[in-house]
Structure prediction request, 180 residues.
Amino acid sequence: MSNVKMVEAPEGHEGQGFFATSLDTVIGLARANSIWPLPFATSCCGIEFMATMGSNYDLARFGSERMSFSPRQADLLMVMGTIAKKMGPILKQVYEQMAEPRWVISVGACASSGGIFDTYSVLQGIDRIIPVDVYVPGCPPRPEQIIDGVMKIQELVKNESLRRRNQPEYKALLESYGIE
Ligand code: SF4
Prediction:
């Protein structure tokens, strides 16, 4: 018996020799299973991410084995670790350099809220400078939690309308962060 699991077919109309579904669904399915993450790892949470990429947890199973260390080709920004206020503009610049559609995961307490570093030099959550789609709790989160976060992103990607990025609500969201 094979252990290989195929991605389930999307909803649609099936008959002998044909299958019909919407363009949104097909593109969502392809995008969700070929996400290219950009790891922005600054401290301990980044080590958990390394374990997530290792053979035991194997993020490659989700189509995300190809790390993108250039914002140009990435579509998922994974922020892992403490972000000092000095580093904030750099993080924002990386986000701005990513092409649409792009998603963001905030991994761990530091990236999500500053964590234990309630101090003048640490950004108290990356959502103060860029929009975040999924938060992964923990200090540090285990690889299973990081995988859960990626799966939540996959759900968002799969169900996102192709029109969302052109809608006024999305533009207003970016404008609220000072991003054009
Ligand atoms: S949340 Fe905890 S484990 Fe993660 S970077 Fe902060 S201090 Fe380190």
Notes: The longest helix spans residues 143-159. The chain is about 35% helix and 15% strand. The chain has one domain: 37-176.
